[in-house]
Design a protein that fits this description.
mainly alpha, 2 helices
Length: about 55
C-alpha cells in the first residue's frame, strides 16, 4: 500500500498515528447530516432488511 501512487500528497507517519487531516470535511447542519446526500436517496421509503442469521 505504501508504494501505491497517489495523486494527493500524504504523510504516512501522520496517517498511521491517525493525525492526518482529511482533504474534505462536510458541513453538518443537524444531527442527521443528510444535506450532503442527494434527495433521490433521502426521499425513498425506509425498508427493513432481514438479518443473515
Amino acid at each position: 500500500m505504501l508504494s501505491a501512487h497517489l495523486t494527493l500528497p500524504c504523510q504516512y507517519s501522520q496517517l498511521e498515528k491517525k493525525q492526518a487531516l482529511p482533504p474534505f470535511q462536510p458541513q453538518i447542519t443537524d444531527d442527521y447530516g443528510l444535506d450532503n446526500f442527494d434527495t433521490q436517496f433521502t426521499s425513498e421509503p425506509v425498508q427493513l432488511t432481514p438479518d443473515d442469521e
